[in-house]
User: Fold this.
Amino acid sequence: KVTGYSAGVTETVRTSGLGAARGAGFRRRSFVCAAATSGTMVEGHGVHRVAQRHRRLLLGKVFKATSPNGRFAQGAKLIDDRTLSRIEAIGKNLFYFWGDRGDGGKNTTVVHIHFGMSGQFKTAGFGKLEATKNTRLELASESDDIVAHLSAMTVNHGDMEFYDKKVKALGQDPLREDADADLVWEAFKKSRKSVGALLMDQSVIAGLGNIYRAEVLFKAGLHPETPGASIDHETFTNVWQISKDFLRRGVETGSILTVEPQEAKVLGPPWTRRYIYNHSQCGRCGTRVKTWDMAGRTVYACVKCQPLESTLDPPRKKQLAKAKGHVPFVSHCAPEPRQAASALDAALEKVSAGEKRNVEHVALVEESTLELAELSRLKVKELKTKLSDLDLPTSGKKELLKRLVKHRPGKIPFKRRR
Assistant:
């Protein structure tokens, strides 16, 4: 097979303040879903992509709401035949609001979603999705020709007080316009945690995951074990700005891309996407990338570009002593997109470069990416046969799938937004 790509892995986005990701405009019946893959969790940019897409696709509509597996029956009854009036994304969490925005939220029902490791939020034309044992919520509108199926680790509901309580427990999301960096700075100054631990603490900064942690700290030149309270305000501001820049780029491209385009040309493969995450060597200096455990997650560092300048307490010193040279778990990363990417654009880049699902979870799946999942199961010989039938070239193993998707018969006509 050409790749291990599947429909359960694709892409995501996130919340208010950013507006629609450029170049992501599609027909109303395009698929959109939030999904997770084994061992990975969608990061903030992915959740924002879902929120942005659903604002265009679902917002303002009235749905027949049901719970196919019965695990969200009460919540479904509360939102049945009511208007979806608002969608918010904060960190790795989505909030969907049902009710009249003019009543001050008195009768609003808020549905909270956290995808976890295997969640999905699919949308398609009315009657084109079949519920599974994991489908907790179905939203259907025959008049709007749309149906949505949700399965996720967390799906619960409440009123505006419930929402306020959830938000209060979350940290500041760098992607949101209402994010307050000063609150994060205060948390750093008061904490005994390392910067590596703080970046993963969703009650401090909401939305960053393990890939972003590795890349943000490398770009900032900070060792993950550096105590958060020891850095100065200038260094903190740099970390915050890098986080914002990386997440915003993720929203626009649909992938976690951290290497600047010009530097990517200098570094070359395999450092065209990321600096140190899942690399054996640092692309800048060639030093072996070290990995070790931090609160149950693997942390990455180039000890030359990210020198540790602080004295550690015995437990952390002992853990750091176990650091080993990293052995990559995939061959290489995909090239950087030249423009804002649709779900299909980003998926094809991953496919053609061999980047597997265990590298980056993506949660925006559209009709074209579901079709891509089917085509990606074909063997090279089968792909060549299909291309020959279409009188298309059969050379270049890595280009076969991409060429077939581009020229597939009866393909869905996607139009880019101007």
Remarks:
- The CA atoms of residues 12 and 320 lie 33 Å apart.
- Residues 233-253 form the longest helix (21 residues).
- The longest strand covers residues 84-90.
